[in-house]
Amino acid sequence: MPDQETIERARQDAREGKSPSTQAGEFVREEIHHIREGKHGASSPQQAIAIGLSKARRAGVKLDPPQGAAGTRKKAIQDERAGEHPRRKVSRRRSQATERALQREPRRSASKSSLSRQAKNTAAKRGRSARSRAAVKAAHTRKNRSS
Fold this sequence. Notes:
- By secondary structure, the protein is an all-alpha fold.
- It has 7 helices and no strands.
- The longest helix has 17 residues, at 20-36.
């Protein structure tokens, strides 16, 4: 269950008209913090991001399912449906099993260097023009910019 503070930050982003991926970023950020403070681990930065996105979908953020493996798409659709009915009881046994499994994973997957490597590798897979467009958009939508 995400912190109430995280949900509120995501709702604030939605009110400001920010994209669903920006709203979901709050949940990913929370997950990174959980790993860094030792609550649990993750096998890779990608897993930490995936957990955050799953929580975002379950909290009602309208994220599209990813283009990729059928299983991943199915899980994303399942998470989205769960977000439509938020007050369903979660299986205690399953939650504890997931928590224990994550506690066995390393904490280094949320280190600055591993997240930086992940970001660079992902950015390199996108085209040059897409990266440039993202940078221009970031400059335009940045808070407290001096104009």
